[in-house]
Amino acid sequence: MKRLKSVLTAITLRKVICLLVTVGILCIIPAASVNASSTEGLTGQTGESTVIDGPGTAENPEDLQNLNIVNRIEIEYNNGNGQLNGALRILLILTLIAIAPILLICMTCFTRIIIVLHFTRAALNTQTAPPNQVLLGLALFLTFFVMTPTISSIYTNAYLPLNEGKLTQEEAVEAAIQPMRQFMYNTTQKKDVELFMSIARQDWDGNLDSIPLPVLVPSYILSELREAFTFGFLIYMPFIIIDMVVASALMSMGMMMLPPTTISMPFKILLFVMADGWGLIIGELMKTFTR
Q: What is the pTM of this model?
């Protein structure tokens, strides 16, 4: 017990000594102030203010822009004729990567393709064959195949002119959106656009330019869901007929306890292979985007 008290006393004494040394150092160091010189751009004399124009001295917006106390950030690169800084490019790329999944799902043909592929697997009743990774990979490559003309248009009309300094950032964004708007409008049904325009209480003259982007995107998604489920229904029909035939045969033989799907699945796979199901479904699915 005495040893523990001696240890605590030693620790407390060390803390007090450290505190006294720190206070002594702070008292010894003299106070210093540094101001920017208004003539040479180096450190000037004490007492000189670094504020060029004080608050409240601006008489118009131009004067306000010249004040050095305005809270703003400006990015300029060679009067609009150069290239963005590498760090800023990385920031923009990371931002784009963060929102890329949303853009991929909501503004491309990925939604329709992945739903149709899921319906195909469910109709075959093969559970996890093909697995989700294969379906997602196939949907991504098919999406890239369909969106290649749109991506090329964005690269030619937006990215290259921006990189060459022919377009500002705002003009490049507008040029990049136009091909996406045209793609979505080509596969969007008019009744879906009219639905969201009526919800937004806006009038539509039937032209693409008069459709706001917040209206066009949900209209496109709704049309894609309708088209995908229609395609899925057509895929289900022949397989349902096989299930009904197998179920009727089992009931006629008195084998009511045997699940019909167990017997019908080999026949579904056989029919699917003989009809070249994957080629037929994917081919017809791709044709729906070229109407």
A: 0.64
